[in-house]
Specification:
The complex is a heterodimer of chains A (154) and B (430).
Chain A (H helix, E strand, L loop, with lengths): L2 H17 L1 E6 L8 E2 L11 E6 L9 H16 L4 E6 L6 H21 L7 E7 L10 H7 L1 E6 L1
Helix pairs in contact in A: 2-3
Chain B lengths: L2 H13 L19 E5 L3 E2 L9 H10 L4 E4 L16 H6 L4 E10 L4 E10 L4 E10 L4 H17 L8 E6 L8 E7 L6 E6 L3 E6 L5 E6 L6 E6 L5 E3 L7 E6 L5 E6 L6 E6 L4 E4 L7 E6 L5 E6 L6 E6 L5 E3 L7 E6 L5 E8 L2 E8 L5 E3 L7 E5 L5 E8 L2 E8 L5 E3 L7 E6 L5
Parallel strand pairs in B: 1-3, 1-4, 2-4
Antiparallel strand pairs in B: 4-5, 5-6, 7-8, 7-30, 8-9, 10-11, 11-12, 12-13, 14-15, 15-16, 16-17, 18-19, 19-20, 20-21, 22-23, 23-24, 24-25, 26-27, 27-28, 28-29
Helix pairs in contact in B: 2-4
Classes of the chains: A alpha+beta (154), B mainly beta (430).
Chain lengths: 154, 430
């Protein structure tokens, strides 16, 4: 057989294989298994909440908010409390980006608490992004309530 | 063998107009130009009554994205189950371009169900594929999806995606106060909660072997990335760092995960080595870097950054760490994903204050807005690159919707209970 013939036969085999085909497939009933959280963390045990609100896509705090944080800082120091600051966003924008924005909000509040004398060792921060809204509804009324930082003391 | 004679015969086979089957049909102009196919009810050769009708599973699969128009059995002139019973003229008369017949039997040897099927090209009057699917009776629906995949591949020339799955997050409702990490078939059937928690769950992503899912859980009071095996629900938490631990996405080799950590004070892109359990920092900027996605060739990671003042998409070379900005149109381009061929990306694009899904050609830089709904996010592409699934709103309700990348067919994910968000399309596993 010469090279042309070899090439030709290879081509023939490939071509015929592409015309009509035969297949055998297999399915199995491997089902996935469920699990659930064991409740390592719960929102319970928190004595008071204080909320600060933010403008859209912003993490800075206005003067009314700063006054609120000053009072909070005093209360925290007087009672020797620990603080958990949670940052939240409205639903606009992507979820992971909002998680980052929520962290900036929580950190802004934490920094103002530290400036007002709360030891940084008493403060932890967490961002929930847009995952825990307090108001449902795709309108400014709901959005403005959801763009918040929660100061939880315990 | 007389070689010249063989050559002549082949010449006739190849160039006689009624033969070639590699024709790739292009749909232009939408549903009215869809491909007509007849899927005949398959012969049921089992003692027990039939509950799932494979021809119905195939019909619903093929019609999902508007590319096919499936002839209902009531319009058929005959219901053939063997090749001998097929009269092409009848099917041509009904306007069917293709025909599928088959039968379902119990195999004594394998103690399993066998669905044998044949796909015909009605116009060219020939068989284009004969196949069978074997499996337990409980997988009858899966068998239907396998056959749909084969039909799709033989006719469209690209892989079918009806056997793939989607993962998504179901948000708490009145009936279930928990967040649920769900998986289901792409038609919404066979849904199952993989993980349930009273605290938020986010960002599901499939391992390339489809055996595991990574996601973010707040069950410990802070965000943490977990990997869960589908087969036994075995969970593994990635090494926890201070601050945000989120946005996991698998490398194509399945050995690494790109993710976001804010341990350095602000969110940056990191790579987690699953064998060594160590984090390696990839980007380092005082702004927000987030939402990494590995390129199909593993060389680059796509990510969102606000380093220019507004969220835009960038690409970082994992070896040289060199960063290139990809998007320039508009002031909000985020949560990008590569198309499977690596030649384009899909992402969230804000236009006049409204969030849409857009696609950009990476060579020309040209962007095209795909969706006209509002608050669209979390786009995910089918592994054959044809369909985009994304999260949007129906009133105040979170729903999943889809659109073909050519923009011709739009659909809403059917039969999902609850409110779904953050869809993630599984890879294509044979």
């Amino acid at each position: 057989m010469n090279i042309f013939q070899k090439f030709y036969l290879t081509f023939l085999v490939i071509f015929l294989a592409s015309c009509s085909s035969v297949s055998t497939d297999r399915t199995n009933d491997a089902t996935a298994i469920s699990a659930s959280a064991t409740g390592a963390y719960s929102d319970g045990g928190i004595t008071s909440n204080n909320v600060l609100y933010f403008a859209y896509d912003r993490s800075d705090i206005n003067s009314a908010g700063r006054a609120k944080i000053r009072n909070l800082a005093k209360m925290i120091k007087d009672n020797d409390l620990s603080v958990r600051v949670e940052g939240h966003c409205d639903e606009r924008g992507t979820r992971e980006y909002n998680l980052a924005l929520g962290e900036q909000r929580a950190k802004t509040v934490a920094e103002l608490l530290i400036i007002n004398g709360v030891p940084s060792s008493k403060i932890s921060t967490v961002s929930y992004g847009e995952e825990k809204p307090v108001a449902s509804g795709s309108n400014e009324n709901s959005w403005s309530k959801n763009r918040r930082a929660l100061v939880k003391t315990f | 063998m007389n070689f010249k004679k063989l050559f002549l015969i082949t010449y006739l086979i190849i160039f006689f107009p009624s033969v070639s089957s590699q024709l790739r049909i292009e749909i232009k102009g939408g549903v009215e130009e869809s491909i007509s196919i007849a899927v005949v009810p398959m012969q049921w050769n089992l003692e027990i009554p039939q509950e799932i009708f494979i021809h119905e599973v195939i019909k619903s699969d093929l019609e999902s994205f508007g590319e096919f128009n499936v002839l209902p059995p009531r319009n058929m002139l005959s219901l053939p189950t063997t090749k001998e019973e097929v009269f092409y003229k009848d099917w041509r008369l009904l306007g069917s371009d293709y025909l599928v017949i088959g039968n379902i039997e119990f195999t004594e040897i394998d103690q399993e169900i066998r669905v044998s099927y044949t796909i015909f090209d009605v116009v060219k009057e020939r068989v284009i594929h004969r196949g069978s699917v074997l499996g337990p009776l409980s997988t009858l629906r899966k068998m239907g999806h396998k056959i749909s995949d084969k039909i799709y591949a033989r006719i469209q020339g690209i892989p079918g995606i009806f056997s793939t799955k989607i993962a998504y997050i179901d948000k708490p409702s009145k009936s279930d106060p928990n967040y649920n990490l769900m998986i289901s078939d792409i038609d919404g059937n066979d849904s199952l909660s993989l993980f349930s928690s009273p605290q938020p769950l986010m960002s599901p992503s499939w391992s390339p072997d489809m055996q595991s899912i990574s996601y973010v859980s707040f069950e410990e009071g802070t965000s943490r990335i977990f990997i869960q095996k589908l087969s036994n629900a075995e969970r593994r938490g990635l090494k926890l760092e201070k601050g945000i631990n989120s946005s996991p996405n698998w490398a194509p080799d399945g050995k690494k995960i790109s993710a976001v950590l804010s341990k350095s004070g602000n969110p940056d892109i990191f790579i987690y080595d699953l064998e060594l359990s160590t984090w390696l920092q990839v980007t380092n900027h005082f702004g927000i870097d987030t939402e990494p996605d590995w390129s199909p060739n593993s060389r680059n990671i796509l990510f969102t950054s606000n380093r220019s003042g507004s969220p835009q998409l960038y690409e970082v070379n994992t070896r040289t760490k060199r960063i290139k900005r990809l998007t320039f149109e508009g002031t909000y381009n985020a949560r990008g994903r590569y198309l499977p061929n690596g030649k384009g990306i899909i992402f969230v694009h804000r236009q006049n204050g409204v969030f849409h899904i857009a696609t950009q050609n990476l060579r020309t830089g040209k962007i095209r807005i795909l969706t006209d709904t509002r608050l669209d996010e979390s786009p995910t592409v089918s592994p054959n690159g044809n369909v985009v699934l994304y999260a949007t709103k129906d009133g105040d309700k979170d729903i999943l919707a889809g659109i073909t990348l050519d923009g011709k067919t739009k659909f809403v994910m059917p039969s999902l209970k609850g409110e779904a968000r953050e869809p993630s399309w599984s890879p294509l596993i044979d």
